[in-house]
Amino acid sequence: MTDDDAVETFYTDERWQNWLDRLEEEELDPENEDSARLLLNLQDDAAIAVVKVLAALDEERIDEERAVEEIRDIREIVLAEVAFDDEDKLMLIDGVQTSLVPVFYAAEEYVVGGVVEGDVTEFVHAAADAEAEEDLDAALGYVVQAGTRVIDGEPLDIELVDELEYGLVSEWVNGLDSLQSAIEDPEVVEEDD
Prior knowledge:
mainly alpha; 68% helix; 0% strand; UCP022079; DUF2150 domain-containing protein
């Protein structure tokens, strides 16, 4: 790529802010299908941006260093503290942010270290065991390893979540499901659906 080429943009503060503005305007009820869809679209949109970075790397439009930089930029935008007055909405957005944490780290690990040997299901079970022992760093590590497998095309059975205690690992696996969906169908989620 020459310096004259347009620099590809993968995600922007404005894009994230548009989603937040929309969430602030909406009456959010996680039991309501439209609210749940909006939150899932927000999550999927960020995962799609990460997948587009990986695709650009794969197609040699960007190098590894730029890919890592782009993934970190998306992570910084999405994981920045949100200033909402509504505590319930803050909790829902926090859930989305939590779900996306392993998406960013798995993508970064994939770029820097490649695919980890192992099985997605085994990594998820190991993560759940680590969470039960309150070793959250290890739990996240296992989910990130599972994420590199998902990026490489190994299917993640989302029904695994049903077997897990509700907690960080179940939220993180939910994020990997968004990653998997983004890989299977990397179409941009329209902000004004």
